[in-house]
From TrEMBL:
Pathway: Lipid metabolism; fatty acid beta-oxidation. Keywords: Oxidoreductase. The record marks H190 as: Important for catalytic activity. It comes from the Eukaryota. Its EC number is 1.1.1.157. GO terms for biological process: fatty acid metabolic process. Residues 236-285 form the 3-hydroxyacyl-CoA dehydrogenase C-terminal domain. GO terms for molecular function: 3-hydroxybutyryl-CoA dehydrogenase activity; NAD+ binding. Residues 51-233 form the 3-hydroxyacyl-CoA dehydrogenase NAD binding domain. This is 3-hydroxybutyryl-CoA dehydrogenase.
Length: 298
């Protein structure tokens, strides 16, 4: 990072965590004061999942599609509003499958089967027959809620709608389709980047998320070769609630001149046996995640 970017990064993190404890308290107060429970939830979530829809074909969506096809052996339908992004996603998936063949992780026959299970659709309506849908667009609340509102109209009433959000409230997303009676089938399914490599999924339970939805989603994630940790809806969930103060303190230490970037990273990398130091990690996530998570935490 350049000095200017470090300065801007510090300002963002410092502002976020100066208000973090307050935001957690306000969020809990908001949830406890609202009656988001819907007593009319009578449709049991679909558990026989053969076809999975993925909305958003960027790095996360591409990875989710790959593990769904490779490990869960599901048919995967990909949708992105930009056809070029969809095309790049298919190129990425092809390259990853080819690498798996070269490493003897799958054979030629298996690789062909994986690729045959994945295909693009031209619009959201193309996902109407899916058994499960995972949204993986950028961290933008209005964009996500717009997609969920459309999916609630397009897909069957028993289909679970999952979000790959890393910070946005699942309860808030679910509340936008509460009138449809499907808010109990909205759940967080936070994969980590890169999806094919990272072993964990953070399963986020909103106020209205039913026990059946959690159970079915957990089973699906496990079929996708992921370990699952179930967490309650809260700002940043567990991953970013713990991660961001860690990175913030490293940036504060750098700003105060306590040590160089290299020494801070080396201490934490070698001393705690993490694969990369906090400042290297900040470089990795700053451009695509931090600026979107900041408004959520604040």
């Amino acid at each position: 990072m350049t000095g200017v970017v470090w300065k801007d990064t510090f300002k963002v993190w410092y502002r976020a965590f100066q208000q973090y404890n307050l935001s957690v308290r306000l969020f809990k107060r908001m949830l406890s004061s609202k009656d988001t429970k819907n007593t009319s939830h009578s449709v049991v979530p679909r558990s026989n999942i053969q076809t999975i829809g993925v909305v958003g074909c960027g790095q996360m969506g591409s990875g989710i599609a790959l593990v769904a096809a490779q490990y869960a052996e599901a048919k995967v339908l990909l949708y992105d509003s930009n056809p070029q992004v969809s095309a790049k996603a298919l190129e990425y998936i092809n390259s990853q499958v080819e690498k798996a063949v070269q490493k003897n992780q799958v054979n030629k026959e298996q690789s062909a089967s994986i690729l045959q299970r994945i295909g693009p659709v031209g619009n959201l309506e193309g996902l109407k027959d899916c058994d499960f849908v995972i949204e993986a667009v950028s961290e933008n609340l209005s964009l996500k809620t717009n997609i969920f509102q459309k999916l609630a109209q397009i897909t069957a009433a028993d289909v679970i709608l999952a979000s790959n959000t890393s910070s946005i409230s699942i309860t808030k997303i679910a509340s936008t389709i509460q009138e449809s009676g499907r808010d109990d089938k909205v759940v967080g399914m936070h994969f980590f980047n890169p999806v094919p490599v990272m072993d964990i999924v953070e399963l986020v339970v909103g106020l209205s998320t039913s026990a059946a939805t959690v159970q079915i989603t957990q089973s699906l994630a496990q079929k996708m070769n992921k370990k699952v940790s179930v967490v309650q809806d809260s700002p940043g969930f567990i991953s970013n609630r713990v991660l961001m103060p860690y990175i913030n303190e490293a940036i504060c230490a750098l700003q105060e001149g306590l040590a160089s970037k290299e020494d801070i990273d080396q201490i934490m990398k070698l001393g705690t046996r993490v694969p990369m130091g906090p400042l290297t990690l900040a470089d990795f996530i700053a451009n695509w995640e931090m600026t979107n998570i900041d408004p959520v935490l604040c």
